[in-house]
User: Fold this.
Amino acid sequence: MPRVAVDLLSYTGTKGGMETYARELYREIGRQGSEFEFIGLASREGYQLDRSWFPGEVVDTGISGENRFVWAFGELFQVARHAKRHGADLIHSPATLGPARSSMPTVVTMHDMLYWSNPELMTTPLYTEPVKFMERLASRNAARVLTISEVSRTEIEKYLHVPRERIDLVPLAGTRPQIGERRPDTSAPFLLATGNRRPHKNWASLIRALPLLGEDVRPRLVITGSHGEDPLTAVVAETGMQDWVDLKGWLSNEELGSLYERATIMAMPSFVDGFSLPALEAMMVGLPVMMSDIPVYHEVCGDAALYLDPNSLESIAGVMRTAMTEPERMAALASAGVERAKQFSWERAATGTLESFRAALRAPAR
Assistant:
């Protein structure tokens, strides 16, 4: 029985979408069953969290996933040693980075190439070159590279020079939010936006577009997902939109579910992205979505979205107006979104991932 060591150093409870990916993927892999045995190589912080979703033993590596320098050294040089110590035949690194060198084949899931395609939009410019260096090493060592969109596959080929035949496209899936009946709040309609405050998310443009609308059609805006002091507070003050914008931190599933029930539309005005789990999960429950007109969002949403120009406040305001004034169109988008979301499933993601593992084990040593 081949043994797969799963690199969970990045799993600390604070990383959002990549952690959702690892958790839901391996929960489904456990449900499916396979010829593989799994061992999780956890960060010090991750080992303290719920591990019931993982389909095998989880060990504490003692490596911090929050200390960037300790974590980077662990990814490059210690994961492979731990995998060898535990008798692994294969390593899977599900969070973009992985070993610089390993004695067994490695599969690395690379979610996006944002540090390469748009370094000016990264939160921590000092880390840009180190991250690119680590991604280059991980991709060179990998027997297979998994990715989640055609956009990302093309960029991995372009920036890291990984041959297309070594890149496996396995789209993400959504986990349906636990909500009751969808009942949009018609007395105080609002847009919902959820995600971290990295610059490429472009949340500030949503706030700046609000004053372009008259109060009779202006929605409230709720933006969730921040940690600590929220940089958007200054934008709210600058625009005078304090009565129209509610900045929320990290919410529980129940709190977020309540917003999904009552929101008019979900907004994702990003300049670039690797996928969009929030949009997919919104579509699953019949919450319409307004998305930037960028290729990756068309991959996710197809015709089941209103599209906007993320560089134009007038375009964003125009789509907001449509959402507030055309309820029949919103109802049609909600139905289309539910159907679109059915094309994505964790079952398909798990099946594709296991096939990538098999391909890596069949590949000749590199």
